[in-house]
Amino acid sequence: MPSAHLPDRSLIHIGGADAGDFLHGIITTDVEGLPENEARPGALLTPQGKILFDFLIWRTAEGFFLECETNQREALIRRLTLYKLRAAVSLAAGETGMTVSWGDATDSTSGIVDGAFRKAGILLTRQPVNGAEGHGEDTYDALRIEAGLAVSGRDYALQDAFPHDVLLDLDGGLSFRKGCYIGQEVVSRMQHRGTARRRVAQVTSDTALPVSGTELMAGGKPVGSLGTVCGDRALAIVRIDRVGDALAQGIPVLAGDVAVTLALPAWTGLAFPIGASEADA
After folding, report:
1. Beta 112-114 vs 38-45: how paired, if at all?
2. Which of 24-38, 54-68, 120-134 is predicted with the least confidence, judged by mean pLDDT?
3. Fewer CB atoms inside 10 A, N or C side of the chain?
4. Phi, psi of 228 (to 5 degrees)
5. 131 and 263, same structural domain?
6. What is the pLDDT of residues 159-189, one digit of tens each?
C-alpha cells in the first residue's frame, strides 16, 4: 500500500483523570463522542471564533493525542497549560514524524484511521514513525487536494480563518451539540444564520498552476488565493458568493494568467450559489 512520511508533524500527549472534560470544554471537536483509534480534525479558537491552532485529535487507552505541525507544538502546549488551571491534566510533547498509509488494502488496525479522509472516501491511517521510508510530502499534498482537506500554513493563515472556511463543520471537526467552548458563540451564529461565505475549493487547470499565494481573480474581483499547489491542481479558500456570480455571468476565474476551474469537494454536498447577489464583507 502507498505511504508517505511527514517529518514536520508532531504529537502532544494529554492524560490525567480530567483530560476528556478539559479538552471537550475548550476545543471544537466533540471529545465525548470520539471513538478510540479514530483521528478527527479539531481547532482551538480565538474568542472571536477564528482558528488559533489546528490539529488532529484521537483517543487511545493511554489518553488523548493531538497531532499538529511541529512548529506549532510548543505554543499549543503553552496555551493548553494556561487553560488547564488545577485540573488533573498532564501535557507532554510526543513523537515527531508521522507516516500515513492509504488505499483499499489499508489495515486500520495498524494505525489511527483519519476520519476526515474517510468522509472524502479515502481510507488513510496515521502512525508516529520517525525517518520512515515512503513517498514525500508532495504525494500527501496531492492526496489532500483530491480530498479537499486544507491545513494551516499551506492553505490559510492561523487567526485568519473561521472553522466553516476550512470545512470543519462538515469533516467531523466541529460540534454544534456540545456545550460552550472558546469561540463557540461566533461559530454557532455563523451556522444558524448560514453566513459562511468562504469555503475550500479544488482548483484545476490545463497547464501548471502558479505558486501558492497567487490571487484568484474573476472580473477584476479577488475570489481567493492558491494554497497547496501540485502541478495543475491546487486547493484554495474562496468566496463562494463571488465564484457563483462569476459562473452565472460566464466570467472566467484566473490564477495569474492561467484559467482555472473551481469545484467544491463532492463529499461536502456544497454548491456555489449561482446567481446569488453578493453582499460585500
Report:
1. parallel
2. 120-134
3. C
4. -65, 130
5. no
6. 999 999 999 999 999 999 888 999 999 999 9
What percentage of the chain reaches a pLDDT higher than 90? 87
Tell me the CA distances in angstroms from 158 to 4, 49, 52, one per residue in order: 25, 12, 5
Contact, 120 vs 269, CB < 8 A?
no
* Helix, strand, coil fractions of the chain, as percent rounded to 5: 25, 35, 40
Give the pLDDT confidence of 197-219 residue by residue, as tens digits: 999 999 999 999 999 999 999 99
Which grid coordinates are listed for 110?
495498524
Distance separating alpha carbons of residues 203 and 261, to the nearest angstrom: 6
Q: Round to whole Å and give the CA distance between 240 and 273.
A: 7
Q: How far apart are the C-alpha atoms of 97 and 239, rounded to whole Å?
A: 34
The C-alpha cell of 23 is what? 479538552
Which among 145, 173, 192 is the end of a domain? Answer: 192
For residues 43 and 200, what is the distance between their CA atoms, to the nearest angstrom?
A: 16
Q: What is the mean pLDDT of residues 77-96?
A: 95
The reply to whether the predicted model has a pTM over 0.90 is yes
Half-sphere exposure of 246 (CA within 13 A, CB side): 24
Domain span including residue 19:
3-192
CATH, residue 163: 3.30.1360.120
Residues 61 and 118 both lie in one domain: yes
The answer to whether residue 277 sits within a structural domain is: no
| Closest C-alpha among 63, 137, 66, 65 to residue 100 | 137
